[in-house]
Amino acid sequence: MGNVLDAKLIFTSIALFNLLKMPLYLLPIVISKCIDGKSACTNIDEFLNHFDIPNLVRTYDSKASIKIRDVILILFYFI
Questions:
Q1: CA pseudo-torsion sign 51, 56, 62, 63
Q2: If you write DSSP's letter for every residue of 38-56 in order, what string do you get?
């Protein structure tokens, strides 16, 4: 074939394959997580844009009911 294998070509190839080993190992994991994230965003978007959401809010005209106005809810998530 006319191609010559010398030490310079062999060690360069091994070094390049070692550099690509970790990204190629992580590629399926990253693709899977991206698909999971897209699916989660789609589900959240469907839920928030659903037409039945106003029916979840109930108002009571009784004097015994509790009225809450101008509430800010903060969720703290500690790892």
A1: negative
A2: HHHHHHHHHHHT-TTGGGG
